[in-house]
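Predict structure. Chain length: 263.
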Amino acid sequence: MRGSLVIPTLNEAPTIGEVVRRFRGAALEANRTILAGRPIDWEVVVVDGASTDRTAAIAAAEGARVVVERRRGYGRAYKTGFREARGELLATSDGDGTYPVETIPALARRVLDEGIDFLSGDRISRVTRRSMTTEHRFGNGLLNLFVRIAYHRYVSDLPGRTLVDSQSGLWVFRREVLDRVHLASDGMPFSEELKLEAVVRGLRFVETPIAYGERATPPKLQSGRDGIRNLWFLLTKRLALAREAHRGRPIPFAQGEGPSLPP
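Prediction complete.
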């Protein structure tokens, strides 16, 4: 089986090399141990947003396949990465070193063993004050509360009866998921949209607690601005879902992206 780890980057030279090395080391070890009977041939796809530092060169030197995406946006980087990826199993992480990429092979085995379609890392259950500021914790809590209320009819059947961490960026999922989900956002709301689409379309969705580390570089998020944008997107997405009863389901990502919702 082939797997692809997709990492969007923008000026992550201090950390991207270590992220790729940690993942590759864990993947090799897993193929010798927990995945010995069915090893996964992993590739690392780094989607670089035209960094002005040595991010792309460092990633390539560590064996990653680098794809430059000059169109801006977190979601746009992932859309490009998913189309470039060759794996039957897809995984994601940021390039800043905060996510435990060394756990991805074990999470991949869980996806395969348990028949999971989409597994998402839950940072909230284990978050510390050093890894996430009070401002970011408040923002995440507000977004998660809005999801719990506005999307109750969809998320109430999940194991935790809600979506615990709507903003997490570590996922492992089967490629077939892209045949079912509609992805409108090109920006930061892409993360919440992909998870919600997996739930809304009836895919088997599971969250699992993960560690979340400190950033080695300044954060690119602006809590107030990005939080408002995410809330607005969640609202417009919910209204779009309500209109599907009359307009029909939108085109899945794998068949063409279709029209985008407001940014």
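Summary: Residues 239 and 245 are 11 Å apart (CA to CA).
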